[in-house]
Amino acid sequence: MARTPTGAAVLQPEVTQAITDAVLHELAEQGYGRLSMEAVAKRAGVGKSALYRRWRSKDEMIAAVVTEFSVTRAAEADTGSLRGDLREAMQALIDWLTHPLFSRILPDLVAEDARNPERGRSTRENIGGPRREVGEAMLRRAITRGELPEDLDMEMALDVLAAPIYWRLVVRQAEAEPDYVDRLVAYALRALGAQGA
Known about the structure:
Shape: elongated
Helix content: 55-70%
Oligomer: single chain
Distance between the termini: 57 Å
Number of helices: 9
Largest sheet: none
């Protein structure tokens, strides 16, 4: 059994979780530009060295925390039907965008991505890419089951599924009524050309 070399940093999961929580709270309260490593360390109850053992910079730390938070919230449920899968995916998207902290963080991150093209590219690759892969897998299962046409325009379909929710909740800042997901699923099934929609 390999031993950890003497003096090597051992990353404790509970410390990483405390730092992650601190990053999200600082982002929600201070915004991207005003967040500091010192404030994160203080809120997490650790020294700055604990942050630098995990990430080389503030940008890397924020990207890692936001990516982990976002990608793990993409619904990967396989309910056996496109309708069921869409319902799970759309509800998970709503839950992600309306999370008490993330709903305050997202607009600032979108603005930061617009100002910093490299950061925007990283967000698309590390958050948008994996989340779209989950959505594509869901649609490909539906094609295999014969629920969707084989020539489905995958890029357009993925946009059609996410855009209305983002527009409603983030841009318009409107509520998602209790029946919103069911109405949106019915609409999406028609838009995708689902069998029997």
